[in-house]
Write a sequence for this structure.
């Protein structure tokens, strides 16, 4: 009986070792990184107002896009193109896509987009300047004492709301066409876009105005998500980073608002970078084809890493096979030994 128990125990150990080997093999699944990245949109992606930023050169700052490019070892204007533009609206971005302005680089594996903020904020800033007589820098240093019960001011506020609603409606159509336009030119593109954050929550403006503007931001973000959901109806090809909630209640810490500027500061860009990085690391892109045009150092390094992992996987399989054969031999020997004992 003891001998039989020993045999069963040995058999269970062999099965367990086989399972461990299979698990080790499954862990060697390779996630291919993107080999090229295109960044489109507005001043969030240009890195506007960050240290060393110069308009027209989007590569000198620690913006979220440049941090991602650094992690992926993508080189400026070769495998990484940042063509975002300060002040750009969804209508302007759509026009550039349709015109073919980005056609030479739109075949990038990864495309990051920030758009929508200028569709909203321009109207609000104009309202502050023309209806209240304040620039953004003035708002950060003092409370607004405007009388919002004044019929004339209320009329202008209602006009602001109407204009913003029109812009949001136009944004919905523009953004949908932006995604479709990219997919028509690059069916394999993986697109990461961002919701619009609220830069005004730290300002001493009336809660009524804050609530109105915040609701409009939520509305445009819902339109953005709906466009992405429709685009992903057949195949997931786009992701939305909820920057609104990442920045919610933190505009004083994540933006330059207290200095009169709406743009993310270095802390804000780092937060966006972390969110983009988390998505990129989970998505496997198509392996790089070994053509003459793609024989870059990074491609070769990536291939070498893959070969090493593949070699390690083969070694694991060989080890499992050896252990299995050895175990079978030991088990056979034990059975023969037991049978001989019984014969005696």
């Amino acid at each position: 009986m003891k001998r039989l128990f020993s045999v069963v125990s040995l058999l269970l150990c062999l099965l367990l070792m086989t399972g461990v080997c299979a698990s080790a093999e499954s862990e060697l699944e390779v996630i291919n990184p993107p080999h090229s990245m295109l960044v489109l949109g507005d001043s969030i992606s240009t890195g506007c107002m960050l240290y060393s930023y110069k308009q027209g050169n989007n590569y000198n700052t620690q913006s979220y896009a440049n941090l991602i490019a650094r992690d992926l070892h993508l080189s400026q204007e070769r495998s990484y193109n940042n063509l975002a533009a300060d002040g750009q609206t969804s209508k302007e971005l759509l026009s550039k896509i349709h015109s073919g302005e980005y056609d030479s680089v739109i075949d990038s594996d990864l495309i990051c987009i920030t758009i929508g903020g200028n569709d909203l904020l321009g109207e609000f800033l104009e309202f502050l300047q023309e209806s209240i007589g304040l620039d953004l820098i003035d708002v950060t240093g003092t409370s607004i004492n405007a009388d919002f019960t004044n019929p004339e001011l209320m009329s202008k506020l209602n006009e602001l709301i109407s204009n913003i609603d029109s812009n949001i409606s136009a944004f919905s159509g523009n953004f949908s066409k932006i995604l479709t336009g990219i997919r028509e030119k690059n069916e394999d593109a993986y697109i990461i876009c961002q919701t619009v954050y609220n830069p005004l929550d730290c300002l001493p403006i009336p809660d009524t105005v804050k609530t109105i503007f915040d609701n409009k931001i939520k509305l445009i973000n819902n339109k953005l998500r709906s466009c992405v959901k429709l685009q992903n109806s057949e195949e997931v090809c786009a992701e939305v980073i909820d920057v609104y909630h990442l920045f919610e209640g933190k505009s004083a810490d994540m933006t330059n608002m207290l200095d009169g500027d709406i743009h993310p500061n270095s802390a804000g860009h780092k937060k966006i970078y972390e969110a983009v990085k988390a998505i990129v690391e989970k998505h496997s892109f198509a392996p790089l084809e070994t053509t003459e045009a793609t024989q870059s150092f990074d491609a070769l390094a990536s291939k070498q890493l893959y070969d090493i992992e593949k070699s390690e996987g083969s070694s694991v399989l060989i080890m499992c096979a050896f252990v299995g054969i050895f175990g079978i031999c030991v088990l056979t020997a034990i059975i023969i030994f037991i049978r001989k004992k019984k014969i005696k």
About this structure: The chain is about 60% helix and 5% strand. The first strand starts at residue 37 and ends at 41.
